[in-house]
């Protein structure tokens, strides 16, 4: 690496500079889009809080409290909950983008079972079948890979709301040094024409009444997959459920975890 | 014989507030609500779930949010302006966005008005009232 710059140095520097400027401007514009989306999504619940509080105030003044008053009160509380959820999701997204990631061997099957148990715990009355294939492993940061899986499985759960039973399958196989992981559901699915909007912050494909949350969950999942050098995409037909595909690096078989530090030195010896 | 108003809005609170604001403004047009841009286009062009609307009257006005699931408001506006059947339809962008870019882009795409939804309820009612008065009472729309 060092010492390799010679006569061609200026061209290389210019190219590097231009690449850096392009990267900076892409980062700035995606940050701008995120802030705009955030401002939009915080103003909406603020308007709900101010408006329904104002309507409620009028009803109290006129002594005309009725069934709608309870509804207004509930809308105010829901709006506050949405704002809190949005701020939590935003913190999760920025944390995922900045954190120093560990490089461990991670048992994704165990994590998926764990997340499944947590989801059942939160909704004990809900019929749910969560099948996790054994032996799914990747390399990376256990904490963040669990968050990524949780976002994908939450998404599967939420958009299965209209089904009598939630059905989620976590499966995959190793191809070379890559794990091909799939999270399947049998929920409402999405229109494949809009597949690329799915992972954009606030790029919702469904309304709140269909279960849409803060609009950042899949952006978090994508951010974590990318930071692991992986890829993520989704496919679906409306009404037929969705499949989320994640490709994650796996440690090459010839490279046991403990020997990694010695690897480079051993080559010439 | 009043025509409907088409409200394209995915936020149930904003739908309810718009209803209340229209009622307070004394406008009794029927409010047809769709929750995303794809449904808005289906409604206007009598397609999909709205195929039964073929031959039905267009709404008097479209109130369009910009940030919508699926097809967003800008694309809806573009599609309305691109089709001979709807290109004169009054479209009022009613949105939370304050981006100068969105204001310019909306007018560029052929929005008739651009109203920023205020956070404050009294001003929200006032804004909806103005929109209603202008577009539903004062203005003579092209036939």
Please describe what this structure looks like.
The longest helix of chain A is centred in the N-terminal third of the chain and has 53 residues, at 9-61. With 269 residues, chain A is an alpha+beta fold. In chain A, β6 (231-236) and β7 form a beta hairpin. Chain A is built from 6 helices and 7 strands, in the order ααβαββαββαββα. Chain A is globular and about 75 Å long. In chain A, strands 2-4-5-7-6 form a 5-stranded mixed β-sheet, covered by helices on one side. A two-stranded antiparallel ribbon of chain A has the order 1-3. In chain B, α1 (12-24) crosses α5 and α2 (37-44) runs parallel beside α3 (73-82). Chain B has a 5-stranded parallel β-sheet with strand order 2-1-3-4-5, with helices on both faces. Chain B starts with a strand and ends in a 5-residue tail after the last helix. The model of chain B has no long low-confidence stretch (mean pLDDT 87). Chain B is of the alpha/beta class and 143 residues long. In chain B, β4, α4 and β5 form a beta-alpha-beta unit. The longest helix of chain B is centred in the last third of the chain and has 18 residues, at 121-138. Chain B is built from 5 helices and 5 strands. The radius of gyration of chain B is 14 Å and the shape is globular. The interface between A and B is medium-sized, with 28 and 26 residues.
What attributes does this structure have?
heterodimer; A: about 270 residues; alpha+beta; five-stranded mixed sheet; two-stranded antiparallel sheet; 7 strands; globular; disordered N terminus; disordered C terminus; B: about 140 residues; alpha/beta; five-stranded parallel sheet; 5 helices; 5 strands
Brief summary of the model shown:
Chain A is of the alpha+beta class and 269 residues long. Helix content of chain A is 50%, strand content 17%.
Which spans of chain B have pLDDT < 50 for at least 5 consecutive residues?
A: none
Intertermini distance of chain B: 14 Å
Oligomer: heterodimer
Strand order of the largest sheet of chain A: 2-4-5-7-6
